[in-house]
UniProtKB/TrEMBL annotation:
GO MF annotation list: phosphopantothenate--cysteine ligase activity; phosphopantothenoylcysteine decarboxylase activity
The keyword Coiled coil appears for this protein: no
UniProt keyword Flavoprotein, yes or no: yes
Chain residues that bind CTP: 103, 113, 131-134, 151, 165, 169
Protein name as it appears in the record: Coenzyme A biosynthesis bifunctional protein CoaBC
UniProt cofactor note: Binds 1 FMN per subunit.
Portion of the parent chain present: 176 to 400 of 400
Biochemical pathway: Cofactor biosynthesis; coenzyme A biosynthesis; CoA from (R)-pantothenate: step 3/5; Cofactor biosynthesis; coenzyme A biosynthesis; CoA from (R)-pantothenate: step 2/5
Cofactor(s) listed in the protein's UniProt record: FMN; Mg(2+)
Species of origin: Streptomyces cavernicola
Keyword list, A-Z: Decarboxylase, Flavoprotein, FMN, Ligase, Lyase, Magnesium, Metal-binding, Multifunctional enzyme
Function description: Catalyzes two sequential steps in the biosynthesis of coenzyme A. In the first step cysteine is conjugated to 4'-phosphopantothenate to form 4-phosphopantothenoylcysteine. In the second step the latter compound is decarboxylated to form 4'-phosphopantotheine. Catalyzes two steps in the biosynthesis of coenzyme A. In the first step cysteine is conjugated to 4'-phosphopantothenate to form 4-phosphopantothenoylcysteine, in the latter compound is decarboxylated to form 4'-phosphopantotheine.
Organism phylogeny: Bacteria, Bacillati, Actinomycetota, Actinomycetes, Kitasatosporales
Length: 225
């Protein structure tokens, strides 16, 4: 993090980072969740703070220690994450959506624990769509000139999928990870390609999540207007 001290290029900037993974409750004891650890989002928050930014970290179910000098807002569901991100984004210079947001949530929440019934098959779970926070912010920027960054975990044709997603979401940068069983989730290291809406493509070699985070900020800074 020596780099942060040498180069406080985010001084005077407010950045919002989301991290972790949302959980969508079914009943008081169960939820639909995902395997995001929050490490990449926390690395983004730490590196931004080291480079002089005021940082708001919206953490969804991450169990990592709150980074020093960072405002942390803890949330559970995608709907709560949306509210917290929109609130913080209204005065932010950049929004980075590193959180894994559940695309769907159970249509109903059972106030009491769901029980087995003798001789009966379980009821199917009906899901409804969650709001797309990144698309909403990118399409209607809370602050003019705000830089909006998304993350995507892809398999198969990673670059083509990433390029299509960048356009669909309308963000300025999309960090694309290739995922597999042993890759990315919970890992200490990451490898990614950062796609820009201007057509740029920045390959980040396998390395610590801090290094990828610093590359993201390197790409955000020149996009500030
Ligand atoms: N995202 C979001 N709100 C959602 C879903 C995703 O803000 N409801 C954000 C994520 O934080 C991430 C980016 O969108 O920065 C891409 O997430 P991803 O799941 O890859 O995109 P989806 O549009 O949900 O596409 P897919 O069907 O491949 O899951
Ligand atoms: Ca998704």
């Amino acid at each position: 993090l020596a780099r942060g001290a040498a180069e406080p290029d985010l001084r005077g900037r407010h950045v919002v980072v989301s991290a972790g993974g949302t959980r969508e409750p079914l009943d008081p004891v169960r939820y639909l969740g995902n395997r995001s650890s929050g490490k990449q989002g926390y690395a983004l928050a730490r590196t931004a703070a080291a480079r002089g930014a005021r940082v708001t970290l919206i953490a969804a179910n991450a169990t990592l220690p709150d980074p020093a000098g960072v405002d942390v807002v803890h949330v559970g569901t995608a709907v709560q994450l949306r509210e917290a991100v929109l609130k913080a984004a209204s005065e932010a210079d950049a929004v980075v959506m590193a959180a894994a947001v559940a695309d769907f949530r159970p249509a109903t929440y059972a106030a009491g624990k769901i029980k087995k019934k003798d001789g009966q098959e379980p009821e199917p779970i009906t899901l409804v769509r969650n709001p797309d926070i990144l698309a909403e912010i990118a399409g209607d920027r809370p602050r003019p000139g705000q830089v909006v960054v998304g993350f995507a975990a892809e398999t198969d044709d990673v670059l083509a999928n990433g390029r299509a997603k960048l356009e669909r979401k309308g963000c300025d940068l999309l960090v694309v990870n290739e995922v597999g069983e042993a890759k990315t989730f919970g890992a200490e290291e990451n490898e990614a390609v950062v796609l820009g809406a201007d057509g740029s493509e920045t390959h980040v070699p396998h390395g610590p999540k801090e290094a990828l985070a610093d590359t993201v900020w390197d790409l955000v800074v020149p996009r500030f207007t």
